[in-house]
Design a protein that fits this description.
By secondary structure, the chain is mainly beta. Helix content is about 5%, strand content about 55%.
Length: about 350
């Protein structure tokens, strides 16, 4: 009995030291981020004494930023609450069930709970931006939309009944009898909160119409050689055609722990009549701000084409004429509205997600 009592006393004595000695990151209201070992805490004054790499400092609890976050676990469960602390191994969150300590290894995604406002302000404690891209403009990424997300643009709309499946369609084509569906499955998602990866497969099924792609035609004369692009057209409105795609994305937390850098590689093959048209692409997206993504994309596509003629130098490798780049940005104007510009057609992206 004495041994048990002594053990309890020792445990009660060393427990505060264990907790206080744990490294913590404090996000301040002024935007500063301070990491160190908590040496002591005065509950009456609300003062932390923290040992940092630049010395021992005092932090007032009133100066610490506490934001509401939404944590999505790898099981699919979600937890909403006030972020109290963030360490290398845990998130400490004040919820309606009390104070919870959540292992980072069990977390799939952390989002800042949006407030009702006209524009999207940049929070201080974000690890994921306000927009996770399902496409790099027209090219798929490895990720899908979150469960129960509905999006609509001037050209298309889509819905995700689960975290791993979504379906979209270009609804304006229905008016001319060109029915189409674009399902997408995320067949793999793994990694940690710091480094995530996802692999998706899918296709674009069309009934009627023709691809918005081009064939090249070369013209030679005495003075110069040129080539021009001509649209691929069809006259069979009942023709079934389509494409299949595969996309892999690696998403990594930036060193400052605010936002992510994502790299994507993928391929799509379009089949129309006797044509088999491949497209291979690689791109990156960078979170410049919470509400701003910068995008760079390079691709090989012999059928992408343009509406203009170009000079053709027979000494230039054929590959040079069918490699292109696209660059631009996606801006989250508010919680729902997204606006983007880029250098290739369609040039402007505007869509609404809710």
């Amino acid at each position: 009995m004495k041994a048990l009592l002594l053990s309890i006393i020792i445990l009660l004595y060393i427990s505060p030291a264990i907790v206080l000695g744990d490294a913590k990151t404090f996000i301040m209201k002024n935007g500063d981020s301070i990491t160190g070992d908590v040496q002591s805490y005065d509950s009456k004054t609300g003062i932390y004494n923290v040992k940092t790499s630049f010395g021992l400092i005092s932090i007032n609890d009133k100066d610490i930023l506490k934001e509401r976050i939404i944590i999505t676990l790898k099981t699919g469960d979600t937890i909403k609450g006030l972020l109290l602390e963030r360490t290398k191994t845990h998130y400490i969150v004040q919820t309606s069930y009390g104070e919870l300590s959540i292992l980072r290894s069990t977390i799939d995604q952390v989002d800042v709970a949006e407030k009702k406002k006209t524009k999207t302000d940049s929070p201080k404690t974000w690890e994921f931006s306000s927009e996770e891209l399902m496409d790099l403009y027209i090219d798929p990424t490895g990720f899908t939309m979150k469960k129960d997300t509905l999006y609509i643009s001037g050209l298309s709309w889509g819905y995700s009944p689960s975290h791993r499946f979504q379906i979209t369609t270009q609804y304006l084509n229905f008016a001319t009898g060109q029915y189409n569906l674009r399902p997408k499955w995320m067949i793999y998602k793994g990694g940690s909160l710091n480094n995530q990866s996802a692999l998706s497969i899918g296709g674009h099924i069309h009934l009627g119409g023709s691809p918005r792609l081009y064939k090249r035609e070369y013209k030679k004369n005495t003075y110069e050689n040129t080539y021009s692009w001509h649209t691929i057209e069809g006259n069979d409105d009942s023709l079934l055609w389509g494409s299949v795609f595969l996309a892999f994305t690696q998403s990594s937390l930036k060193k400052d722990k605010r936002g992510r850098l994502s790299t994507t590689i993928g391929s799509e093959v379009t089949m129309y009549k006797d044509l088999v048209m491949p497209r291979v692409y690689a791109g990156i997206s960078y979170d410049a701000r919470y509400n701003l993504k910068l995008i760079l994309l390079g691709y090989y596509d012999p059928y992408w084409g343009t509406s203009t003629s170009k000079k053709f130098d027979s000494s230039t490798p054929e590959l040079i004429h069918i490699l292109s780049i696209d660059y631009g940005f996606i801006y989250a104007y508010n919680e729902h509205l997204r606006i983007g510009l880029h250098s290739q057609r369609q040039y402007i992206s505007i869509y609404y997600k809710f």
